[in-house]
Amino acid sequence: MKRLAIIGPGKVGRTLARLFYAAQVFEIGAVITRRDETAQGAAAFIGAGQANGDPADADIILVPVPDPELESALARLALCDLKPGTIIAHTSGARGLEAFSSLAGLPVRCVCAHPVKAFADPDRSVATFAGTMVTLDGEASARTELAAAFQAIGAQTLSLPEDVDRTLYHTAIVFMANHLPTLIHAGLETFVHARISRADGLAITGPILRDTLEAVLERGPAAALTGPVARGDAETVSRHLEKLAAADADLAALYAALARATADLSAEKGEASVEGLLAIQEMTRASGS
């Protein structure tokens, strides 16, 4: 069994290492952090590992550190006497293969292995990891080896194109996943202005949120679109904007921007009247200015 070392076992590293160990995909070697007690705590969570051991003993080195620390962590790794053929993988979504520049010329295989998942709590992440998409970019044989390892712990894997724009790739994920809680928060604030509690607002919208997301995933955004903008109902949108502007100008501006973008999506769907969509676009431009 190959040995895995983890440099920076935070929420991502602890989750992945524990899953790899539990599934007997890898033996766990060095678990490395700045402080011994943190490394010991990570090893205890994982169930194995040598706190602040030698990463050069590993066959695969996972580097799930925050983006600002990534290049310095890889530069320190370049000073180690690494085995030829060692796989070194970072888990950043925003950073690509350029992060491995300090390892150029060394007989190692470098891969970007990005689990597209929110890792807010390691215990929950372990329990909900199955089905997570892990995108891979880098040396071909290392991609193949890591794809098999991630699939063994329940992940899906996808190799990114060689010419991927890493910044826009990460921006797309932020748009779709990280901004969704903000959108829901805006809706809950609007419920409060309507004299409905946030808890009741979540209870009211929970089923339709789940249903909408499932429809988007199954049929695509345009086909899943419903509501007043999808119908070209400019009168309803106008009433919404008027009430929101009186309650909270920032919410009104956000609603206007989203309604304007939704009008473009509704045009793609092709069920709303052209006149209604043009009216929505005009009023939302005026509201957003």
Describe the protein in words:
- The chain has 289 residues and is α/β, with parallel strands linked by helices.
- The protein has 2 domains: 3-164, NAD(P)-binding Rossmann-like Domain (Rossmann fold); 179-288.
- The protein is 56% helix and 13% strand.
- The protein contains 13 helices and 8 strands.
- It has helices at 11-22, 36-46, 67-77, 122-128, 140-152, 166-178, 180-193, 198-219, 221-224, 228-231, 234-247, 249-269, 274-288, and strands at 3-7, 27-32, 50-51, 60-63, 87-90, 109-116, 133-138, 156-159.
- It has an 8-stranded mixed β-sheet with strand order 3-2-1-4-5-6-7-8, sandwiched between helices.
- α1 (11-22) packs parallel to α2 (36-46) and α11 (234-247) packs parallel to α13 (274-288).
- The model has no long low-confidence stretch (mean pLDDT 95).
Which terms summarize this structure?
single chain; 289 residues; alpha/beta; Rossmann fold; 2 domains; 8 strands; 56% helix
